[in-house]
Amino acid sequence: MALLRKARGPLFRKYVVYFVVLVSVALLASGLIGLYFSYQENRAALVALQHEKALAAAAKIEQYINEIEHQIGWTTLPQVTAGAAGQRRFDYLKLLRQVPAITEASLLDRSGREQLRVSRLGLDVTGSGADYARDPRFTEVKRGRTYFSPVYFRKETEPYMTIAVPASRDEASVTTAEVNLKFVWDVVSSIKIGEAGYAYVVDARGQLISHPDISLVLQKTDLAWLPQVRAAHARADGRGDEPFEAQDPHGRPVLAASAAIPTLGWPVFVEQPLAEAFAPIYALIQRTGVLLLFGLLLSVAAGVMLARRMVTPIQALQAGAAEIGAGALDHRLDIRTGDELEALGEQFNRMAAQLQESYADLERKIADRTRELELANQAKSRFFAAASHDLRQPMHALGLFIAQLRNHVRAPATREIVGQAEASVAAMRNLLDGLLDISKLDAGVLTPHFEDFPINPLLQRMESSFGSAAREKGLTLRAVPSRLVVRSDPVLLERIVLNLVSNAIRYTARGGIVVGCRRRGGRARIEVWDSGMGIPADKQQDIFQEFFQLANPEHDRGKGLGLGLAIVERSARLLDHRIALRSTPGEGSMFAIELPLGDAQAGGVSTAPVARRPGASLNDKFVVVVDDEALVREGMQGLLASWGCRVLSVASGDEALAALAGEGRTPDAIICDYRLRGEENGIAVIQRLQSTCAADVPAVLISGDTAPERLREAKASGYRLLHKPVQPARLRAVLSHLCSTAAKPQTAGTG
C-alpha cells in the first residue's frame, strides 16, 4: 500500500485517467457502432419487406384490372353487321353478368357514333348515334392503345372509370365499359400488413380510390398533401426514394411504402404504424442502451478526474477569450501542461493571431464595400436621371401646347380647364425638380457662395410665402424676428428652410408652426417647430432617405414625393451645416440647422432678390430650334410664333446647317435639345452652328437628362441650361435677356 501511494503521482493519475477514458470510449464506440449497423440492417429489412408488400398489392390490383380488360376483349365478337346487333347485345349482357364491376357497355362504330349501349343503371339504347369521334375513349383506341379514363364519381356515389378496347380485330369499332371501382375495395381489404397495417389506392391526382374505410372514398378524400403521395408521384418520374416515415390521413406516424400500377399510373400504398413496424428495433435499442449506460457510469468516474485536471487550463482559456472579446487581440495564453490542453492553448494563441490579422483584413473589406456602395449610389443617380429624362420629354411638349392653347381660348370654362391642366403640369414639374435637385447635389455641380447676411428677411419670407397655405389648413405660422447675422449661401440656406417649413405644414393637422433663429454656443441655430404627428426614434434617420414618407402609405403624390428632407440633408452637408432633430410622437417635432455667425457689419445688406430689368422684345427674332422629338418641335414652333418670332425648326445639326445655308440672316438665338439621336449632342450642335454663322449666337440648352455627368458637362460648356418641362414664361424671359445682351452681326455666315 505504501508503494502504491508513492506511485500515485501526477503521472500515475494521468495514465489511469487515460486508461479509463480509453475503455469508456471504446465501449461507447463499439456499442454505438453496433447499434447503428443493427438498426440500419433491421430497418433495411423492414423497408424491403414493406416495399415487397406494396409491389404485391399493386400487382394484385393490376391483375384484377387486366382480367376485366381481357374479359371485355374476349366477350366481343368479330365482324358485326346491322343484322347481328342482337347478338352483340347478348354478348354485352353476358359481359355484365360475368363481370359485376362493369355497370355499362357501349359499342362505337368506325366513325365514333354509338350503336349500342347496355346498362345496369338505365335503359338499354340501340342506334342512338351519339358522336364520340373526338372523345379520348375513341381516339386513344384508334391509335392502337387501350384507354383507361381518369377516376370519376357517378351520381356522387362510388368511384368509376371507363375502359375502351377495339370491338374486334378486323373492324374499326370500339367497345367501352364503365367499371365500378368499389370492387377494388375487396382486393385492398384482403391485403394484411401486420396487426394494424393496411393498404389504399389513389389516382394520379392524389384522390383516394380505395381504402379499408369506405367512408373516406365516398367523401372524395384528397390525399395529394401527404408526403408519401407526393413522393410516389415523384417516383413515377424516376425521382423517388425508398419507403420512409410519414403520417396517415389521421396524422398518426406510419412507415409508408408504395408501388405504381403501370397500366393505370395509380400508386398503391401499404402503411404500418411506426410503433408496430419498429418494435424489434426499439427492443434492440433498449438492450444496447442498458449496456451503454453501464459503460457511461464507468466513464463518469474518469470524467471527474479528468475535469480536475482541466479546470485550471480551461479557466485560463476563458479569461483569454474574455480579453480577446474585449478587444485585446494581442493577448496570448501561457499553458504548460504537457498534454492536449497545452496544444489547445497554442492553438488558441494562433487563433488570436489569425483573428488579429482577420480584423485588419475586415477593415480593408469595409473600405472596399464603402467604395462599392458609392458606385451603387452613382448607379441610382443615373437611374433617377434616365427616369427624369423620359418623363420630362412629354411633359415639356405638353407645357408648350398648353401655353399655346391659352393664347387661343377665350371662353371662361375652357380657360379654367386650361388653368387646371397648367396646374397639373406645374405639380409634375415640381416633382421632377425634386429629382433634379437630388441629381445636382449628387453630381457636385452646385458650388456654395458664402456671404454674411441678416437672417431676419429670410425668416419673414417664410411667413409671407407659406402664410396662406397654413391658414387654409387652419394652422398658425409665425416667424420670430431675429437680429442675427449668419454666414452661409443665401440661396441654398433658403431652400433648406423652405423645405423644412413646407414639410412641417404638410404633416401638421392642428396647432401651428414657429420659425426662428437664436444664438447658441457661439453659433447660429435656425429652428422650425411644429405640433404635428411626430417622428418615432427608430425612423429619425430614415426620413432623410429619398422617397421615404412616414405617413403616406397610399403614396398620395399630393403629400409630396419624399425628397424634401433628402434635399435638406444633402444641402446641409454641402454647406457643412449640422442638422439636429428632436421629436416626440403625437406632440410634434423640431428641426434645427446650426451654422456660423456672420460679421455684424453685414447686417444692413439686403438679400432680397434683385429685380431684373425687362428684356428685349422677341418680335421678329430669328430663332433656330433643334430637337429630335417632333411633338416638342411642333409645340416650340407654335409657342415662339405666338411671341412674334420667326422659327426654323429642325431635328438635327445637319438639317440646321442645310436650312441656314439658304438663309440670308444670322439667327438671333439657338434653342437646342441636349440629347439628340445617335451620338449627337446639343453642345456640339451649338458649337457647329456658331462656327458656321461666324458669330457668338446666344444659345440655350434644353434637357430632360439629370444624370450627374450631364449636369457637369452642361456647366462646363458655359451655355444656359433649362430643364424640361420648361415654363413658357421662364423660356421667354431667358430669350429676352439673351437677345438684349447679344451683339448681332449684320450678315449671315455661310461657311
Give an overview of the whole structure.
The protein has 19 helices and 24 strands. Among the domains are: 76-183, PAS domain (Beta-Lactamase); 329-409 and 615-751, Response regulator (Rossmann fold); 451-604, Histidine kinase-like ATPase, C-terminal domain (Heat Shock Protein 90). Helix 18 links the parallel strand 23 and strand 24. 30% of the residues are buried. Residues 1-9, 79-83, 237-241, 553-558, 603-614 and 743-751 have low confidence and may be disordered. Helix 10 (340-408) runs antiparallel to helix 11, helix 10 packs across helix 15 and helix 13 packs antiparallel against helix 14. By secondary structure, it is α+β, with helices and mostly antiparallel strands. Strands 1, 2, 3, 4, 5, 6 and 7 form a seven-stranded antiparallel β-sheet that branches. A five-stranded antiparallel β-sheet has the order 9-8-12-11-10. A five-stranded mixed β-sheet has the order 14-16-17-19-18.
